[in-house]
Amino acid sequence: MLDLSRFSRQLLFQPIGENGQKKIRAKHVLIIGAGALGTASAESLVRAGIGELTIVDRDYVEWSNLQRQLLFSESDAQNRTPKAIAAKSRLSLLNSDVKINAHVMDASVTELEQLIPSVDLIMDATDNFDTRLVINDLSQKHHVPWIYGACVGSYGISFTIIPEETPCLNCLLETVPLGGATCDTVGIISPAVQMVVAYQVAEALKILVDDYDALSGKLVSFDIWKNERVALSVAKVKKETCLSCGPNRSYPYLSYQAQTKTAVLCGRDTVQIRPSINMDRDLDSLSDILAKSFDGKMAKNPYLLSFDTGEHRLVIFKDGRVLIHGTKDITEAKTIYHKYLG
Amino acid sequence: MNLLVNGDKVEVPDSIETMAQLIKYYQLDKKVLIVEHNLTILNKEQHQYSHISDGDKIEIVNFVGGG
Questions:
Q1: Is B44 exposed, middle or buried, given 0-12, 13-18 or 19+ CB atoms closer than 10 A?
Q2: Is A183 assigned a catalytic role?
Q3: Same domain, A209 and A337
Q4: How open is the CA angle A59-A75-A338, to the nearest 5 degrees?
Q5: Which of B41, B44, B64 sits opposite A155 (nearest CB)?
Q6: CA-to-CA distance for A174 and A18, rounded, in angstroms?
Q7: Distance from CA of B36 to the nearest CA of A (A)
Q8: Residue B67 — pLDDT band, cuts 50, 70, 90?
């Protein structure tokens, strides 16, 4: 018999109660990403008493993570511990009844296709739209709800996607956002993270106790520094023609063509990353963003922008391709790519 | 011209006539947005035809990717 006493304050909360607590205990949540959003979500859900948590991340802990990524310590940064592993060891101390699966891997279609069918809910804690659109298609394919969350600077955004009910991410985004601000270019403050996580975890608890009527149904965004908050009813944005959730769906982001392609360039200590869609990068605004945020050597011509971080050199082509010099490791190259280019 | 943008009263130049011009004024024209104009959500093609008048209520949500 499970001892519920540690959850007494959550049991007193009427919309959860003992019945809700048992439902939470029976659920398996997948968190994709163990950065700022992922660690905070994981801590809340593990403390709330979910039955099983699977957490996926391809990166390791760095000193610059400690300002906002809750589960990590200085020794994790010192040892470059993989984030999923460091998260698991801390989470096990918070609630040892939760079964925690930690995967140190790149969350692409193949990996996620194996994980998603057996979970009840997906929490988005990624740092890029490529992965989010894959999550979005798999959520529709396997009828698993997911909660979009993202933040940069003092700004955050969240939306809960319930298959067959709400619009999906592909309905909301008419085009895939490219480049622009990332946490590594314009920074991020912890309260913006915590606010997004508060929205995501509140929605998660409603789903885990089957209180679907309580879901917000709104696309929420805020700027906690400028004191702005917007909540838009987007139900009408659901598109019949959507290829991810409409009647003639083809799950476009699961196809080989749609995936970001990577290739190690033989003998050059270089990885090429080619984004999933054809694009025309705005090299002028990109060089402005990079120059404002980093000390690095930059060189530009009409066809490409070269940026030397000291350890690696990124060569960003107008057609979207990026060469990352100074590594042969595809996972590391992808991490660098998303860090600087979003 | 006075508008209510994301809940704040703001004054913008009278030369701004359309939603597309307002988005450009805020330097959001290269971002992926959802825009609501007087409680109606616009799709992207409507931005250049949607006429803005004094007192309009506008909400702009910008999709970001960080996490």
A1: middle
A2: yes
A3: no
A4: 20
A5: B64
A6: 42
A7: 8
A8: confident
Catalytic position from the list A151, A183, A242, A245: A183
Residue of A1 and A52 predicted with greater confidence:
A52
Number of domains in chain B: 1
Q: Which of A155, A232, A337 to mutate to test the interface with B (most CBs of B within 10 A)?
A: A232
Domain with A172 in it: 5-254
Query: If you count residue pairs, one on A and one on B, with CB atoms under 8 Å apart, how many are there?
Result: 89
- What pLDDT is attached to residue A309? 87
Contact B67 A285 (CB under 8 A): no
Q: Indicate whether A207 and A119 sit together in one domain.
A: yes
Do A191 and A292 reside in the same domain of the chain? no
Chain A residues touching B67 at Cβ < 8 A? 33, 35-38, 124-127, 149-151, 183, 196
From A225, A254, A283, the end of a domain falls on A254
Strand order in the sheet with B40-42: B8-11, B2-5, B57-62, B33-37, B40-42
Distance, in angstroms, between A285 CA and closest chain B CA?
A: 10
Output the pLDDT for position A31: 98
Render the burial of A181-190: b for 16+ CB within 10 Å, e for the rest: bbbbbbebbe
Query: What is the CB neighbour count within 10 angstroms for residue B32?
Result: 20
> Which of A254, A275, A304 represents a domain boundary (last residue)?
A254
Q: Indicate whether A250 and A265 sit together in one domain.
A: no
Same domain, A181 and A119: yes
How many whole angstroms separate alpha carbon A113 and alpha carbon A122?
12
pLDDT for res A34: 96
Domain that holds residue B19: 2-62
Give the domain CATH number at B23. Answer: 3.10.20.30
